[in-house]
Amino acid sequence: MWKKALKAIFAWPHFVLTEIGMMAQLFGQAVFWGIRPPYRFRLVIEAMEYVGVQSIFIIVLTGTFIGMVFGIQLVDGFRQFGAENQAGAVVGLALTRELAPVFAALMLSSRAGSAMSTELGSMRVSDQIDALTTMAVNPIQYLVVPRIIAGALMLPVLVMIFNIVGIFGAWLVCVKILGLDPGIFVDKVRWFVDAKDVTQGMVKALVFGFAVSLIACRHGFYAKGGAAGVGQATTRAVVQNAVTILFLDYIITSLITGQGGL
To answer: How many Å apart are CA 213 and CA 105, to the nearest integer?
Structure first.
């Protein structure tokens, strides 16, 4: 009886430590094989096209509606205090610092991250990864490294697109529908949003893109159990990515601002 109780108590810490160990192992192997020739630039470009270019539509769609909804909420709330002219500043700061990197990373995880896990998982259960090893091709270097590089490089680009379309969506609602002065809206964005705010979002995007790709590759690369196992690996990757993004967001924000107890 007490053995079952102890097993239940230590199951979660064991799972967390196992995941951290697997991530660290995969990261170390990716670094080791990433700096060794042969350098397969074609695979990196293809991964960047898949992760970045093919995600533009969902990023534009999400960013536009996030900006529109946020603009409505701000104007509705600020009008109670006669401060609706500050909507542009708050929209710009919120998008560049928080909303754009977090939502773009979540969208990337849902679209590209899940596809990475499914693709690598299918290759694992169908013995294609073992076939690469048999042909003297290191599977980490061939499959994992290009995806991690693509995620880390392309998410900052997607975040910049998110910023632009998000501010445009807020401007469209605030100015054209709710009647704010367009000059004041643009002026507030220009004066209150500076380089450090954009840089904070870019740092988050770089870290999020790396984490999303690493987690997706980890779950797909080590998948097992046939088709059901691939589905479970994809689900775990998406959920773990979402939690990791929010956790890293708090850590990075605390470090940059010097607040939050870190």
So the answer is: 10
